[in-house]
Amino acid sequence: MLISTLLWLAVCCGFAVSEHRGNDTVKETTQMTHPLLLVSFDGFRADYLKMYPFPHLQKFFSDGVLVDYLTNVFSTKTFPNHYSLVTGLYAESHGILASRMYDPQTKKNFTTADSDPSWWDEATPIWVSVQNSGYKSAAAMWPGSDVKIHNSTATYFFPYNPKVTFQERLGNLTKWLKDDPAVRFAALYWEEPDHTGHMYGPDNTLEMTKVLKEVDNNIGLLMEQLQQAGLWGNINVVLTSDHGMAQCSQERLIKLDSCLNRTDYSVVDLTPVAAIIPLNNVSRVYSLLNKCHTHMRAYMKADIPQRLHYKDNERIQPIILVADEGWTIVQNGSLPRLGDHGYDNTLPSMHPFLAAHGPAFRKGYHLSSFNSVDIYPLMCHLLGIPAMPNNGSFVKVRCMLVSETCADLAVTVGIVIGVLIVLTTLTCLFRLMKSRGPSPSRPFARLELQDDDDDDDPLLD
Ligand SMILES: *[C@@H]1O[C@H](CO)[C@@H](O)[C@H](O)[C@H]1NC(C)=O
Ligand SMILES: *[C@@H]1O[C@H](CO)[C@@H](O)[C@H](O)[C@H]1NC(C)=O
Ligand SMILES: *[C@@H]1O[C@H](CO)[C@@H](O)[C@H](O)[C@H]1NC(C)=O
Ligand SMILES: *[C@@H]1O[C@H](CO)[C@@H](O)[C@H](O)[C@H]1NC(C)=O
Ligand SMILES: *[C@@H]1O[C@H](CO)[C@@H](O)[C@H](O)[C@H]1NC(C)=O
Ligand SMILES: *[C@@H]1O[C@H](CO)[C@@H](O)[C@H](O)[C@H]1NC(C)=O
Ligand SMILES: *[C@@H]1O[C@H](CO)[C@@H](O)[C@H](O)[C@H]1NC(C)=O
Ligand SMILES: *[C@@H]1O[C@H](CO)[C@@H](O)[C@H](O)[C@H]1NC(C)=O
Ligand SMILES: [Zn+2]
């Protein structure tokens, strides 16, 4: 009886753990009726949550999900990471590698004000897929949402203008969501706390306290507006960011002019990840850069570490320089800003947070981390649309969802071990009793002997 109960438990746990392997396309139709809002607060470093009070954000995730940090993509810059969030691709695969790029094929230069679709067309952002599935999308200043990627912008969008307030972005986005039920996906972008982080550096607690209070108030406003529009509780909301922020200093400058002549190279992007085109002897330029500074690494394109996923693209220049955390690369001059990002994506200071709330999400659930590229398959799942090929994994995020049965791994392992111990003990006890017990009457002795021959010997040995 006990054994069968325990076995039943073990089988159930096994099912719970493997259930997600089922067919994703047959999801409850109820999920299709909930729109999804993705919000990015630029430069919201994960550990700000441990250092500053966030009463509104706390309220948001206490009734939802909190993920301590995301491992974002290299380079940890705004444009590459915002495009990774909506494509699930590493920078080398979506083609937006930095805020300044050079394309050797078209011989064009990219800046963030560029609206030429060719920069973005290597990938398909989720809003385009949403529209291809027959729904509509809305975006408020999300990078790329005003560009005609694969011939279309978001259905509703603003041309980028940093002067438009958070209130206006939120107000208009909420109106689109409320007035047009065909809008399934909405994206909202806000420049803070990135802007303040660059200006004063994340170590300036006075300025950071002020701006993070504003950000938290904006989260409060967001919940309030969604409530007023009758959407709160019916809409799935994901709050996240693109990257963190590191403190820089005039004492941590790497001056290229002290290592080589400007006529030796041209620079496409400078700090903290420099993209360098050598103009004469490549190996000489590389060797000068390689020994330039102990806090800067130089890589020939072919030798860029695989783990950065920052190699396989035409727009990666022949030489890449990567500064250590908090160091700034300049040609010759003073520190451009007190805070910066773009550094190695394994650095905790570069990691953003994530919080989620809505009918699809568990309440009061906590996860330590996953990759920022995993958000894309999560969103496609929530929207019930097919995902484009991507570098994310739904398995890593699925436990955030109420629809997924998720056994706690520790509990599962504990139960399985417990079952094994009980089974072993019972078997031993059984054998012990059997070997001590009086022999049954003759007719059974033979049977028992056969039994022993067939099954028991291996167990006894
Ligand atoms: C999932 O189910 C749908 C509908 O039943 C079917 O068309 C599709 O082929 C299935 N996909 C997989 C991967 O099993
Ligand atoms: C993009 O739109 C233009 C006209 O606006 C059209 O000529 C072209 O065929 C479209 N391209 C694709 C791939 O849909
Ligand atoms: C937001 O909506 C209002 C009212 O329709 C409109 O006047 C305003 O221009 C919109 N804002 C932006 C940035 O488009
Ligand atoms: C760098 O700047 C300093 C001060 O502005 C100047 O004295 C020095 O000559 C410059 N070095 C180079 C290599 O341009
Ligand atoms: C830079 O150019 C000057 C003058 O042409 C030359 O003397 C010097 O050796 C060069 N420095 C390097 C590092 O190539
Ligand atoms: C692109 O940038 C490079 C390096 O900064 C510069 O030399 C080149 O003139 C620029 N090309 C165009 C078309 O602006
Ligand atoms: C390039 O520079 C290296 C030294 O760094 C030198 O050995 C080599 O001869 C140079 N090649 C050319 C073509 O100048
Ligand atoms: C990322 O995904 C793209 C699209 O499927 C694929 O081409 C690329 O090889 C993937 N990158 C890695 C490192 O797996
Ligand atoms: Zn940013």
TrEMBL record:
GO molecular function term, any single one: bis(5'-adenosyl)-triphosphatase activity
The protein's required cofactors: Zn(2+)
Signal sequence, start to end: 1-18
Membrane topology: Single-pass type I membrane protein
Keywords of this entry: Blood coagulation, Cell membrane, Disulfide bond, Glycoprotein, Hemostasis, Hydrolase, Membrane, Metal-binding, Signal, Transmembrane, Transmembrane helix, Zinc
Compartments (UniProt record): Cell membrane
Disordered: annotated segments: 437-461
InterPro entries: Alkaline_phosphatase_core_sf, Phosphodiest/P_Trfase
GO BP terms, alphabetized: blood coagulation
Compositional bias segments (type: Acidic residues): 450-461
Gene Ontology cellular component terms for the protein in this record: plasma membrane
Enzymatic reactions: P(1),P(3)-bis(5'-adenosyl) triphosphate + H2O = AMP + ADP + 2 H(+)
Top-level division of the source organism's lineage: Eukaryota
EC nos: 3.6.1.29
Coiled coil segments of this chain: none
Top-tier EC class: hydrolase
Transmembrane segments: 409-432
Pfam families per record: Phosphodiest
Family of this protein: Belongs to the nucleotide pyrophosphatase/phosphodiesterase family.
Function according to Swiss-Prot or TrEMBL: Hydrolyzes extracellular Ap3A into AMP and ADP, and Ap4A into AMP and ATP. Ap3A and Ap4A are diadenosine polyphosphates thought to induce proliferation of vascular smooth muscle cells. Acts as a procoagulant, mediating platelet aggregation at the site of nascent thrombus via release of ADP from Ap3A and activation of ADP receptors.
Listed name of the protein: bis(5'-adenosyl)-triphosphatase
Organism this protein belongs to: Clupea harengus
Lineage, uppermost ranks: Eukaryota, Metazoa, Chordata, Craniata, Vertebrata
